[in-house]
Specification:
27% helix, 9-stranded mixed beta sheet, 12 helices, 5-stranded mixed beta sheet, Immunoglobulin-like, alpha+beta, Rossmann fold
Length: 591
Amino acid sequence: MIFLQPVLLLLGALISIPFIIHLVGEKRYRAFSFSSLKFLREIERDSLQKLKLRQWLILFSRAMWIAMLILALANPFFSTGAGKLDPGILLIDKSFSTQQNDIFISVTEAFQKEYTKWRVVEYNENSSTDTLKKTLNEYIANNKLSKPNIILLSDFQDNNITHDVLNIIETLPAHYIYVPVYKEKNNTAVSRLNIQNDIQNGNRMSTLNIHTSSTQNTIDIPSVYVSINGKGAGRAAMSRDGYGTFHFNPGKTEYVRCVVRTSDDDYPADNARYLIVKTYQKIKLLCISENTLSGYHLNAFTSMQRIDAMIISPDALPSYNFQDFDMIWLSDLYVLPKGQQEILMRYAKTHPLVISTGITLPDTPAWEHVVGKLTPAEQQTGFLNISALDASLQFDGYEPNIFRVRRYYQSSADSLYSLWTLNSGDPLLARHGKHTYIFFSPFLFDWNEMGLSPYFTRALGRFIESAVGNEIPQYVTGDAISISRPQYTVITPGGERHTVQTCFTKTRIPGFYTLEATDIHQDIAVNIPEGETIQLPVSLDSTKSFPWNETCFEDIRNTVKGRNIQTLFFILAIIFIILEMVLLRKGEQTE
């Protein structure tokens, strides 16, 4: 059986048009008398019959492709049964953006009432895709289902979790349906926020770099307002494409709490970003080096007023708590005990770790997962230059070719982001992951000239300042906040107080959370994930997508119980169009 929308009257009317034109427009022949027919070619009866047959075939083809197009637009289904759907899986997106949409919440409740016997599986931006895939597969296997029904309710934002979920369900042996519930109101949100400190010439000004995104492709210049330590500081200068800056003096407090919001927004809960930064305190740097005299980066550290560097030998590592330092600098690829190396890599998950390659390469693969396989670059007859610095590291007076380097290493790693680039195209300073940095050069006066340049000290200081960032570790909604205290109090953005023994997990509301204990008072910023700010939705298969409306349940029932044959009718329409064109072409050749 075929389920069609009420278009049958239109179908009949349109199909009849070619027949009416054919009958009304049929040629009427007049008789003429000829004195002689000896010069006229005798027309055989079967030729006339073929001509009439071709005309009827053209008429039939024209009527059929019109009919096929109308049937395709009616979105037909071939039914294999009737009644209610067999119980399946109702997969619900519980990410931050959907929970700020009242329409989505009501639609979710309606689906759960409609499918009371279905297995409900929820996920959000913090869910593990491996766990989600395992849950779905276990349900299918335990219930011995050959092709169960899966309905996915989401706003289908174009972010990582959406793509991961789509990849999972599209590989399952299941019949899946998408129900998108999009945001229908205006939404302009602060999608990214970071701070940059200007420490040149004793300048104590800080700069907030801001980016906003919107549901509209083209927007007016957004209105963005900044609060510093709970007080309104002013309006940021923004461009039409959503980028802007705000300059402020952080003052003498130890920490600065920044809040950036947009105005005229119908979803105010997700249009703000929160940031906590340290003010201008000295950066505590732990440098690990066997020779305190040879590395010219060590000499540079001593000339930087904002750097408080402590230089120790690799053997002294167990005596120090890495968490007491803002940055760790490993002056060579030392062969460290496995436990010490693991501690360093754990430190690098939240703090900057810098690794210099050293004079000789250790005969061990222990560092290859970070720096790649290193090989000495070909010996140069003269010095190479650093032709480019990353834009965030540039400074007044910097010009390309200002640093000269003779010896460096090349890496096989393909996941490096170059911060200092040589004119050979190779990176001299690169970032691996989020917090690990690599200098591909042995830092000795004997081999390079950079240490003789005051510009090197400035560039190195700029890099350290940027890498440390002076930012307190940021959390996103849903993250667990832990602290090494037997008991402490958490104060939420709404003022609620919670006594916690190990970790605090109720972080679904963005804002500032305060941790209090006997010897600690710490503020933590919790933001919605960047992927949950405003983005365009992903592109979905139209044959499996049913945006929410009054007939949604009926459409889903028809779809899941049967098979959508819309594509078949489109193909048939194309076939009949081609057939008509071929017949018309043959008619022209005959004439």
